[in-house]
Amino acid sequence: MRRKKQYLILSIVAVSLFVLSILGLILLRLLTHEGELAVLFYIVLALVPVTAILASVLIAKYFAVRISVNSLINENLYSFGERVTFYDMNAFRIRVASIRTFRGKSSEQYIIAFSAANQSVTENINRDESVNAYNLKVAKYIDESFKKNKRKSAYCFSRGVFILYLRDISEKDIRELVGKISSELSRIATESQVRIWIQPFFGACELKKDSPLVESIENAIVARNISERNFETLTYYHESFRHHSSSSDIEEITEALKNHEFVVYYQPKYSLSAKRFVSSEALVRWDSPKNGVLTPTKFIPIAEAAGLIHEIDTYVFERVCQDLNEAKRKGRRIIPVSINFSLHEFYSNDFLNSIMELLDKYQISPSYVEIEITEATSQANTFISVSIIKKLRDRGIRVLMDDFGIGFSNIGNLRKIPFDAVKIDKSYIDDIATDMKSRDIVKFLIDLCKAIDLEVIAEGVDNKDQVDILRKLKCDTIQGFYYSKAIPIKEYEKFLISNPFEKKEERK
User: Among 111, 86, 72, which Cα is nearest to 214's?
Assistant: First the structure.
């Protein structure tokens, strides 16, 4: 709107100059014949085409901006139900291109996509006035939050999704920003009394130096959609997200399951108070004859796209039961093993029955099995998750919340959902030896869990300094490279028999 007024004023000035040039030209022609005034006549004559061109350009620009603004207002009328000037995608792309041109492309830059409500709701834009009203309030919040820092940010609303461009920002800053926006969205929903399901999902894509902007925007939206599908608050884009399952993918993974190419590695967890290893986590690897040993990030997205994640989850759990049964049969040392389950597996109808059937099949006591689910999984449907967790615990199976702290859920839910232990995400542990704020946050999380009688497990502990700090903070259990990386079953069995961290009598 401001640009339209500016171009209108400039157009009027240019036209005025053009008219004055013509009038001056006529007047000078009448008054001059030869000499110095003739020179002035020719100078003014030269101004005529210049002012005419200037006036034409500015008038054309004015109408172009007017059309653009009218189009923007019409789009926002459709999106928000009101005639507002919140940026659309076209204005956003122009803005970002301008920032990257004048401020360079070398710093860290991200595109973040999020929806204020879940996608099934936002697809009904302009059909539900409450959706429009809610999105409008979110737009005003975004505008207020970022308009003071336009040299490093831009934002728009398109296809039911808010898009942010941010430069000079780290992944830690993004996590904090996502938490702040999530809290604000909940506040807006509460104050507005909107009757829609508010569950924000975020996707982030790094905008690298030579990355096409349009492609990065689409990648951020893809990551946002993955977040919604997996009930994760924030997902960073990965190239594998663009991988579409094919018959060859399905055949390859099915064949790998048949040939037992998926293997289970075990990472021990060390109790600081008991001074011994008290449990471990089962982690799957694909020992592919063609590609070597692959970590889950390399094949899980493909398995999910191919609809084979259930088969992998079941395979891993059964493999763990087989290993525990073998250790028991040979009289080896046994400690509980925790297994991760996907969102879809956890909420499947026969989840509990399938677990109990495999435990009975291999004669494994439920006390030797722990179930790990992410914070986001537990929040996907709180009522159902509480019911499932209670049934697991009634059968003697401990349940752990994995990746605590990165889902931005209400901390009060820790009190409502009956977990046995909480695993603090590695991202909080990384800097505790060098950053006091990180240490204070971890202390707060540990104290919080202690207050409600939950065991605290720190993930990703890589060095002695971190261990010493966590010991002082009264953390219960440590998991990480300092004690052991994830290792194959044979190495794991040897490690439990002989390792440098336990005394001989404590290994029995």
Answer: 111
Q: Do residues 114 and 165 make contact, with C-beta atoms less than 8 angstroms apart?
A: no
Q: Does residue 430 contact residue 460 with C-beta atoms inside 8 Å?
A: yes
Polymer length of the chain: 508
The strand ranges marked E within 1-118 are: 109-115
Whole-angstrom distance, CA of residue 325 vs CA of residue 369: 12
Helices (H) then strands (E): counts for the chain: 19, 15
Helices within 81-212 (DSSP H only): 89-103, 119-122, 129-146, 171-192
Is the alpha carbon torsion for 241, 243, 244, 245 positive or negative? negative
Report which DSSP code applies to 417. S
3-class secondary-structure state, position 306 = coil
Lookup result for tokens 């009688």: 453
Secondary structure (H, E, C), 140-166: HHHHHHHHHHCCCEEEEEECCEEEEEE
Tell me the backbone φ, ψ of residue 505, rounded to 5 degrees. Answer: -70, -20
Closest CA to 21 of 13, 11, 32: 13
- 36-80 and 2-31 helices cross at what angle (nearest 10)? 160
Best-predicted range by mean pLDDT (75-89, 116-130, 316-330, 491-505): 316-330
d(CA 344, CA 384): 13
What is the chain's alpha carbon radius of gyration, rounded to the nearest angstrom? 31
Instruction: Determine the Cα–Cα distance for residues 81 and 235; give it in Å rounded to an integer.
Output: 30
Cα–Cα distance, 420 to 415 (Å, whole number): 11
Give the position of tokens 């990030």.
297
467-to-434, 461, 462 alpha-carbon distances in Å? 13, 7, 8
Nearest to 303 by CA among 260, 256, 267, 264: 256
Q: Which residue from 278, 369, 277 is spatially nearest to 318, judged by alpha carbons?
A: 369
Query: Residue 158 is encoded by which pair of tokens?
Result: 């398109």
Name the DSSP class of 245: P
Lowest mean pLDDT among 57-61, 201-205, 382-386: 57-61
Evaluate if residue 59 carries a pLDDT over 70: no
Closest CA to 268 of 361, 185, 335: 335
Q: Answer for the pair 237, 219: CB distance below 8 angstroms, yes or no.
A: yes
In terms of pTM, does the model score above 0.70? no
Q: How far is CA 401 from CA 375, 405, 423, in A?
A: 6, 10, 6
Q: Which helix (H) or strand (E) holds 442?
A: helix 436-451
